[in-house]
Amino acid sequence: MSKLSFKSALIAAVALTVPMSASANDEVRALTQNPNYWAFPGGNYSNWRYSELKQINTGNASKVVAAWTFSTGRLQGHEGGPLVLPTSATGLPHDTLYIHSSFPNDVFAINLDTLEIVWAFEPQQDEAETVPVMCCDIVNRGLGYSMGQIYLQQADTKLVALKADTGEVVWDVFNGSEVTGDVNSIEGRGVGPASGMTNTNAPHPIKDKVITGCSGAEFGVRCWLAAYNAKDGSLAWRAFSMGPDEDILFDANTTSLGKKVGKDSSLKTWCGNSDWKAPATGPNSCKTLSDAWKTGGGSTWGWWPADFNENLLYYGSGNPSTWNPVVRPGDNKWSMTIFARDIDTGIARWVYQMTPHDEWDYDGINEMILVDMNVKGKQRKALVHFDRNGFAYTMDRVNGELLVAEKYDPAVNWATHIDMKTGYPQTVNKYSTHYNGEDVVSKDICPAALGTKDQQPAAYSPRTGLFYVPTNHVCMTYEPVSYAAGGNQYTAGQAYVNANLTMYPAGAVCPDCPNNNATKDNMGNMIAWDADKGKIVWSIPEQWSVWSGVLATAGDVVYYGTLDAYAKAVDAKSGKLLWKFKAPSGIIGNFNTWAHKGKQYVGILSGIGGWAGAVVAIPGLAAAPDTAALGAVGGYRKLLNQARNSGVLMVFALP
Amino acid sequence: MFKKAGVCLALTLFSVQGFADGYPTEETIRFVLDCMVDLGGQNDHNMYTCVCRHDVIEKEIPVYDDYNGARIYERFKVMPGEKGGFFRDNEVGAELHERLLAAREVANAQCPMVKHLEAKKPDPSSEVKTLVD
């Protein structure tokens, strides 16, 4: 252990300067500062995705080889990454790795001493009801841990707490239907897969709560963030993205860019008339109001940090529903918004809407990263966010002041800049799908709907002060479809998209962009970003986009993965390629690292579907008897039979 | 006989190219193993066919990144949702895939399945019968 001892002085100094009174997950906070483990999805509660481990460093990263692999037995997209926990957390007499799969969201506990499966949890979900209403693949972003419990947020909206040592269910709750309070606030329809609501996010244990979100903006669901009590699964609070103040948990002190938002700040921005003119380039009042907010979207499926000194948690909301902007005039608040909410009550302290009246599907759900840093000469408790809309925002996380908003892909063209006083983007009419109108194809909009970056989280290294951001370099055509031309009216549980689009490399629109490759057809870049200056420090063109979560380490190695199945390590300072490995499938998972018995490991899920051929079949494994020496539990036999062409956890180490 | 000689000659020529700018070992092995499974299983005669096809494709598409791009497009364009659209809409990928399909046709023409004859083993049951008789 000596080489990999506890080295968290820096993190502790930055993130936890004031000791908190003992709360339910002080334990988790301590674990997130021990680099031998990985206890919270974002690595630490500031979402750095940074590790103090440095056994693998720039001098030897090229020698890293595959150490072990684990097939989940499930197909299609595998996002998120494993948790790694010690005996003190799990009660098991060994370090344990917990990993999840895509739908139906199996969970496996793996003994890191023996690489045997300790237990497997295989939820029974209604596939026919759930999978067809998952808009964008059947992904799950992983697990959470606190209080001796592993949390799984199933696709069918059931949130489950499992005993970390046995996998037994402690409690479960349907996030999609267990609504307390005013049932009318969800229009009596109920929610859940039957009305198009699903879950893909990882549950985030924060203090004595488990925070979870909501997906379904493509199905007209009015989404929320919810906090359940970790002890028994009862609902602590639920904050909708749009609607009356009592639904969105705003009070008289809630601000946006330093100004109190006042009463009905959301309801006032869903207009009932056609006098409201897009694009939204500044505050622009509705003449009459509509109730389109009831199907308003604003989903929440990202990665959420917490600042325990301020007692705030941070997250972003997704696109307003439907994708055809013409039928929902107004700013559509608070879709596309950064929220700072009190962890205990859910009350919003501040909000900032990045893309008012979205016309492009630039969801605001991407991760928030909390860093205490110098911004324009002043020390700030900052929040850094790389939005789908192509702008990187640096904000004061205490009061919500907008400090920096710059493009992190020069190809971004839908807006020229962000007005730093009003916070509104200065949109360009040519690329405004509302301005151009229904059933008109707007061309060469950058970025494409999936954004300059999607949910795949960036990393921050306190050693370099840089943010390492996985990006897309893609533009699109976008055609909002009118009801007259065949667009769907809202029907619960049915897709409510009403837009057609195509995507292509940004070099076709921006041939002179400095981040194009030689043939101007790269669809991604791995970049290092200076969040004070708002500038790209280095940029690596990638042919097929960088869609993994990034990991930065004290060895000054940055790991990332690409959609075309390469795992790569680069030098954190220069971006120089140190190592690459062709994984069995595309990489959309997040790199994590941990240490076991003195050795540093790096793990990544590989799997996006489109499986490679027969090689994944492991001769002998599938033929193993039911009681093979792999700690088989009920259902594990099935895994063996399916062990070809499934999602794979790849684990790497020095030889 | 003549055909076989042709294949041998081709293999020799291609291997020069292969060493100069070869596909990664992993890709070569993956190709051959997958190909053998497609042809009915792992055995020597299927391996001859598959190695030949691999080398023809490598000659037709000598830049590995082009081959890889074609395979990426082929594998991932069928995925549902936005991520699949990422591939489906990609014109470069579609062009590379056309080249791969053409290369496969050449490979199938130049590398027909090796025919395999197997000497019949004596039927053990009939031997037993003889003894009893």
How would you describe what is shown here?
The model of chain A is unreliable at 1-22, 180-189 and 613-643 (pLDDT under 50). Chain A is mainly beta and 655 residues long. Helices cover 5% and strands 33% of the residues of chain A. Chain A has one domain: Methanol Dehydrogenase, Chain A. Chain A is globular and about 65 Å long. Chain B has 133 residues and is mainly alpha-helical. Chain B has one domain (2-116). In chain B, 76% of the residues lie in helices and 0% in strands. Chain B is built from 7 helices and no strands. The termini of chain B are far apart.
Please supply descriptive tags for the structure shown above.
heterodimer; A: 655 residues; Methanol Dehydrogenase, Chain A; 6-stranded mixed beta sheet; 5-stranded mixed beta sheet; 7 helices; 42 strands; 5% helix; 33% strand; globular; disordered N terminus; B: 133 residues; mainly alpha
Calculate Rg of chain B over CA atoms: 20 Å
Q: How large a portion of the residues of chain B is in β-strands, by DSSP E?
A: under 5%
Q: Which two chains share the most extensive interface?
A: A-B, 33 and 28 residues
Q: Based on DSSP secondary structure assignment, what is the total number of beta strands of chain A?
A: 42
Which fold name is given in CATH as the topology of chain A? Methanol Dehydrogenase, Chain A
Radius of gyration of chain A: 23 Å
Strand portion of chain A, in percent? 25-35%
| Average pLDDT figure of chain B | 79
Helix content of chain A: under 10%
Helix count, DSSP H or I runs of 4 or more residues of chain B: 7
Poorly predicted tracts of residues of chain B: 1-20
Q: Helix-strand pattern of chain B, N to C?
A: HHHHHHH
Structural class label of chain A: mainly beta
First-last Cα distance of chain B: 46 Å
General shape of chain B: elongated
Describe the strand arrangement of the main beta sheet of chain A, using strand numbers: 17-16-21-20-19-18
In DSSP terms (H or I, runs of 4 or more residues), the helix count of chain A works out at: 7
Output mean pLDDT of chain A. 88
CATH class of chain A: Mainly Beta
N-to-C terminal Cα separation of chain A, in Å?
A: 18 Å
